[in-house]
Design goal:
This protein is mainly alpha-helical. The chain has 13 helices and five strands.
């Protein structure tokens, strides 16, 4: 008999199934090292057929978690002594099923909500956030050319492409290692569906964006995982509540993207380079371990 595995589960762990084949013994027979080799060969041949074709052999399988009583009580006979070659794979199966359950939680979710709530503590944040004075913020002009890696926000791409990025920003992205987010990639490619193809300037704009996207090194493009997305949802909701912004104006959706970029950079040990001063100032107040480098375009500087 095949203990502890359902036929539909065999292909999820071929290595363990192969290992368990060594211990297979008929359920109605006690442990016998000198069992008929023809019977053993018959069982192993059918096990091989089960592994390869996935055929349903109910008589080969117990339910997913057999008990010792199941092993001691054959289906058509009195209780017998525990068959050690059967007990051993049963223990292996139980360990395998526990590991499989944990693996399924990681692969499907990859996110621990209780851990995120312990980390961010949204219930402890009350009142509202206020933007800090400029002199208390980390500005690009104060950064040396040589330093830690950068994580580029969407505002950097747009300002560079439109020729309005400050000289300090151009210098920093020239000399430092730059990482890119798949979140910003989606915000850039959004233009391919949004812009009117009949407009005179659409073709040139899309060609410029396409060239920028193609220049992003694949090994430096990072997609947020389930854990980052889960944390970002909590962080974005907290940011929206504390910022006292009006509902229904798209701020919440933008905050989710900002939070993912912020948390990705924190995970990589990089600093977010961004022109979005307000939102990333708020994010760094909520999560002080995240690093940001802020800038304003020359037009914004003149108007402020």
């Amino acid at each position: 008999m095949l203990v502890g595995l359902r036929p539909t589960k065999i292909f999820e762990s071929y290595v363990i199934a192969r290992y368990m084949a060594v211990f297979i013994e008929p359920a109605s027979k006690p442990c016998n090292r000198h069992a008929d080799s023809r019977d053993r060969g018959f069982l192993l041949r059918h096990l091989y057929s089960l592994l390869v074709t996935g055929a349903q052999y109910p008589w080969l399988c117990f339910r997913s978690s057999p008990s010792f009583e199941d092993l001691r009580r054959p289906a058509d006979g009195p209780r017998e002594s525990i068959n050690l070659p059967v007990v051993i794979p049963m223990m292996i199966c139980r360990v395998w099923w526990a590991a499989r359950a944990a693996s399924r939680r990681i692969s499907i979710l990859g996110f621990d909500l209780s851990e995120a709530l312990r980390s961010l503590k949204p219930q402890k944040h009350v009142g509202s956030l206020e933007r800090r004075p400029d002199e208390d913020l980390p500005w690009v002009a104060d950064e040396p050319a040589i330093g830690g890696p950068l994580f580029l926000d969407t505002s950097v791409y747009l300002d560079v492409l439109q020729g309005r990025s400050p000289v300090e920003v151009d210098r920093l992205i020239t000399y430092r290692l730059c990482h890119h987010s798949a979140v910003c990639l989606s915000e850039l490619t959004h233009a391919f569906g949004r812009l009117d193809p009949k407009h005179a300037s659409t073709k040139a704009v899309l060609e410029t964006i396409a060239a920028t996207v193609e220049d992003i090194p694949e090994h430096r493009l990072h997609a947020p995982g389930a854990a980052i997305r889960g944390h970002a949802g909590v962080l974005a909701g907290l940011l929206f509540r504390l910022s006292n912004l009006p509902k229904g104006e798209g701020h919440e959706r933008g905050f989710v993207n900002d939070a993912m970029v912020f948390l990705q950079a924190r995970q990589l040990g990089a600093s977010v380079l961004t022109g979005n001063v307000r939102d990333f100032d708020f994010l760094s107040q909520i999560v002080p371990t995240g690093r940001v480098i802020l800038y304003r375009t020359p037009v914004e500087a003149r108007s402020s």
